[in-house]
Specification:
This protein is mainly alpha-helical. It has helices at residues 8-27, 63-69, 73-78, 84-98, 103-124, 128-136, 189-196, 243-252, 254-258, 265-274, 280-287, 297-305, 320-332, and strands at 152-153, 160-161, 164-167, 184-187, 221-225, 231-235. This is TIGR02646 family protein.
Length: 334
Amino acid sequence: MIYLGEQLDALNKFKPLVTCWFNIKRLGNARKGDVNGYQCVDKNCRICNSKIEKLNNTVIDYTDYLNFICPYLNRIIECKPNEIISLQDEIKDEWLKIGLGTEDHLKEKSKHVFTVKGYKEWFTNGSINYSLAEWLDKHTCVYCNRQYIFTTRKIGEKRGVTCQFDHWFDKGSRPLFALSFYNLIPSCSVCNSSVKSRTHFNTDDYLHPYIDKDISSRFKFSSIPNTATQYGITFLNENKMDAKTKKTLEGLGTKLVYSKHSEKELQDLIDLRMKYSDNYLKNLLENTFKNELYMTKEEKYRLIFGIELSEDNMHKRPFSKFKKDIIDELLRIK
């Protein structure tokens, strides 16, 4: 995984959008003719100036629910991952204390408001996901670092191509946090839908890309011979790996998603080391461009292997973490 940092600038841009969306669903849109509706102070607000309308449901009345959630909204949006469970318990206890319904009622209404109306209909279909992806500015999947997740839009249109957002705390179990900033992880479709899917993560047993700064250095990729000429992908000193890192890699299926790359990216690097002179990798790094111009180590790795060395920049190129670990291992072989 790749550490995302606090991303305060992105949070400060995202929070007002969710706030306006929620209050319009609760009160109606004053700028669209709702006399008692909501409008923020920003005259150019893209949400208040949109076609979003009050949440009206002829079968279930959501007024009490929306009014109850409103005082908690800021905390729900910006809640840190290690505080989500305690906040959910606090909200549930107050809900039951007031007598607005059962715990199941709270969950079902949260699902309708935050998951269905919020995440699916507004965040995803309303191109808010494009904006958040652009603000976070991560170029490869945070979970696997194998695929680009660039955001680009068609000329004159709101949509085009962007990443998927995985709910680290799955929205099925915790729908109240379907629009929580630190619960939305930019990822590729494989990691989001196929591998992690609905795995129930928590911050006690798993690493989190918004919490664990050393997330990329907690493990190292390694190679293992399967036959005389073929190699597989494993982790260095896996038997000594701490439980939290090991469980995270298992939950994300890291070894699984990298397994087929043993025949491609891994084999290419091993061929450079084994099929040519003993110091060919070393020669590539030390002597390439030597007479033409001075190049930093980072520049050489980028041009020769197409990867970034710095943990802060690994998100910019696919396979940066993997290739760096394997190259370091191959260079240690005498």
